[in-house]
Amino acid sequence: MELSTLKTYRKVVPGATIILFLVPAYLFFIHPVFKIDEIAKFAIGGFGAVLAVIIGTCFSILNIRSLRIKKTHAEIITNIKNKLIENGLTRTVDAEEKKRVIEGRRLIDVFYHFIDNDESLKEKSKLVRDNGLIWTSTADVAILGCFFTWLYFLLIIFFGAEPWLARGGLLIGFIGLLSGLIFHPLSVKKHIALGNEQLEFIFTNHKKELQKKINGLFD
């Protein structure tokens, strides 16, 4: 997957999820008769896609996704940094200086230097982006599932346990729970594994250059 495509999908997915999670409320408040053909026409007709992008863009601007991925992103990045230090640092350095470098951005810059300048690593990056979409999408669904579950719970309190509200809320809650507790952790595990494959390639094919760059960070 290309980076531009990934960025687009990261707007479409949360936007489409919000629209989908609003369907039970739409059927209860606006259109009590379920008509799949009307919903399909809306989704496929173009307007639904545009609306999904607009909503997803707002979702991204507000950085709501970080509520779920901040911790797992740190886990992924920390794994890369530690392995770069472990395999690239060949001299003894002060513990405080080592901590400063690990907490900074330069180790990741070194990592992406190799990614951007090796065709084989560029190809591997496409797999990482594919999984990256799953990683952020499962986070989006988990967050939105939690929000809409509470929303439907409040609607049930005010309007009663009407079928569309009750069933919709339960289904959305189940989807959000499944995404957050199962699929998101699995995507993180896969992301770390893919990152390790890239690192192993660097350690095997660019060992001397890596050591030079890592040691240079402490000069």
Straight-line distance between termini: 37 Å
**Count of DSSP helices?**
10
Helix-and-strand structural type: mainly alpha
- Total count of strands: 0
Number of domains: 1
Shape: elongated
Q: What percentage of residues falls in helices of 4 or more residues? A: over 70%
State the low-pLDDT regions, or none: none
Q: Strand percentage, roughly? A: under 5%
Biggest sheet architecture: none
- CA radius of gyration: 22 Å
On the 0 to 100 scale, the average pLDDT is 88
Order of helices and strands: HHHHHHHHHH
Q: What is this structure's SSE topology?
A:
Blueprint (H helix, E strand, L loop, with lengths): L2 H19 L1 H7 L6 H9 L2 H15 L4 H23 L6 H9 L2 H11 L2 H41 L3 H43 L1 H10 L3
Helix pairs in contact: 1-4, 1-8, 2-9, 5-9, 5-10, 8-9
